[in-house]
Write a structure and sequence with these properties.
Strands 1-4-3-2-5-6 form a six-stranded mixed beta sheet, with helices on both faces. The protein is α/β, with parallel strands linked by helices and about 210 residues long. The chain has helices at about 60-70, 80-90, 100-110, 115-125, 145-155, 160-170, 175-195, and strands at about 5, 20-25, 35-40, 50, 75, 100. Helix 2 (about 80-90) crosses helix 7 (about 175-195) and helix 3 (about 100-110) packs parallel to helix 6. Strand 3 (about 35-40) and strand 4 (about 50) form a beta hairpin. It is built from seven helices and six strands. The structure holds manganese (II) ion (MN).
Length: about 210
Amino acid sequence: MAVYLHEEDLPEGVLAPGPVAVDTETMGLITPRDRLCLVQISDGRGDEHLVRFAPGSAFAAPNLKAALADPARIKLFHFARFDLAAIEHYLGVTAAPVFCTKIASKLVRTYTDRHGLKDLVRELLGKELSKQQQSSDWGGADLSEAQREYAASDVRHLHAMHAILVARLEREGRTALAQACFDFLPARARLDLAGWPDKDIFSHES
Ligand code: MN
């Protein structure tokens, strides 16, 4: 089990087949303004790969893009909407098909309104996740040991939670509804990018 830091792309052949857990770190929450600094990806077998993009990057990254756009690979995210927008805007690919642990959590854990990654990891896996580096500067030339560990830990538990949430969705009869929500996520991310970030277009309100 190790954390690997790569510059500008993933090396070829480091991911086993099957679902991959994905997360991104950016300069902030406004995607077109706040550049993509890091993409974390893991095949769930114990290693996490961090792909760092320098300021002014051309975002070529053919190996990373191929993995993200692979229709045979499910991409596991926590709050996919944000990551899909960043990936689409900077890398130009749609990271689908998607499973979002936050949406799955909202559909099955209706007994709580705590759907953050930390809360979910604590309840489903009984582990404590540190969120200390969440709002740190991801744009520098060097990432600290604490930043690398934080970035890696954001994808470390998604496979285990995916398995549990798939079973919970099945138990509650919400698998098809969840899938329909996941399938809509790339379009939801595009609405964010196209100027409807705060609008619920399904709402009766204008
Ligand atoms: Mn993260």
